[in-house]
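Can anyone check this?
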Amino acid sequence: MPADPLPLAPLLAQQLRLLVADPRAVVDLRRYFGIGLPPGQAAFTGSRFEQLAGGGDRPEIADQITAEDLVAVQTLSVTVPAEVALDLLEGELGAELSDLLRQVPTGVELADAAEAEVRPGSPAFRAWQLLEAQPGVGWVIAGKVLARKRPHLLPVYDRVVRCALGSPRPYWLALHAALRENGRALHRELLTLARAAGVPETIGALRVCDVVVWMAHRTGHRNCS
């Protein structure tokens, strides 16, 4: 894993800005979130991920895993194994994760965050490592659980997105740098795109970014490593 992601930022920013500028991006966002669809056509279940039951980052539950969080993760086509889910809800794993989440800020956009908030060794990264190491979890599910708890700071990142973007690592840092390039230009463009598509303002720039990349690459994805 490279220690310095900054050399990756211009390339990643360029990739993402091309996707954001493509006229297809508005169509894809509207399709994903079910905006203006014809009768009989439904939104993607993932459209409920960020805001199901009021969101995973609302103050009263921001630092603990709830049953609603586990359902929200399922809307992104993954499931936390039952044993791990119970441990998160009632056991030591949940207590340990809560201790780490209390050290991860809420309401902070990745583009505005300090690099220290998402670098290896940070509380967020240690929370990801803790989840990733659980039986049957792995890096994709771990990242989606944390994205539910800190949707504006930690991105959804799965195999489709990784394949589309050429596996920039560490992704959190590379995306952080890309969003901050040129006076946060990409961050602003993501929000402008969201408004053009009619996406609710409660949906953050990171979620818009994930959906745009995922929708553009999902049909051509071949599980590249």
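Reply from J.R.: I decoded it. Confidence is low (pLDDT under 50) at residues 1-5.
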